[in-house]
Amino acid sequence: MLILIQTIFVTINLIIGLYDFSFYRIPNALLVGMLVLYVIYAPMFLTMNTIMMSALVCLATLVVTFVLFATKFIGGGDAKYLTVASLWVGTAGILPFIFLVTIIGGGLAIVYLVLRNHVQRLSDVIWIQVQKTEEHFPALQYIWAGSGTGPELGKRDNISARMLPYGVAIAIAAIIIMVNNPLTVL
């Protein structure tokens, strides 16, 4: 069961990373999915103390990311994503998680500066593939519900290689933390 939950967790994070890379949005439905998965996971594998400490880390992350969002340092989707992911990493993983997000985000910034045109083209290819997939499977557009106007309507706003999709860094860091140090009974 733990492997199934971890696989779903990794899959959700991969989808969020790809979606943010291509659309500069993080679907609320996927964040809710991560939260629901945690609610299923936590009582089976964590002590009540670990769950409460993870909830405190999540609350602290919510406060910090709200301030960062209010001062326009990060986007709203990134703030929500960091908050939900912090619930999964808990007290033992929060500092390595934030460190990884920072390092990976810095690396992405360098890649975006050096390969600006190539990044833009790759983002376009992913966007086109998502649109084609949605044509064949229309129900997939409900995954993106609540993420704003844009890809679900066949439009793509605010896409440029000058913007950094920080959800990619968050997704990679969350996957690394989960694979290397899964949050189980501590």
How is the secondary structure organized here?
Blueprint: H1 2-23, H2 28-45, H3 48-70, H4 76-114, H5 116-136, H6 166-180
Describe the structure.
This protein is mainly alpha-helical. It has one domain (2-180). Helices cover 74% and strands 0% of the residues. It contains 6 helices and no strands. The chain has helices at 2-23, 28-45, 48-70, 76-114, 116-136, 166-180. The radius of gyration is 17 Å and the shape is globular. 34% of the residues are buried.
In short:
The protein is mainly α and 186 residues long. 74% of the residues lie in helices and 0% in strands.
* Total DSSP E strands: 0
Mean of pLDDT? 84
Q: What's the structural domain tally?
A: 1
Question: Which percent range describes the beta-strand content?
Answer: under 5%
Shape summary: globular
The structural class is mainly alpha
Q: What gap, in angstroms, lies between the N and C termini?
A: 18 Å
Spans with pLDDT under 50 lasting ≥5 residues? 145-152
Count, helices: 6
Query: What is Rg?
Result: 17 Å
Proportion of residues in helical segments: over 70%
Report the major sheet.
none
Order of helices and strands: HHHHHH
Looking at this protein, list some descriptive labels.
about 190 residues, mainly alpha
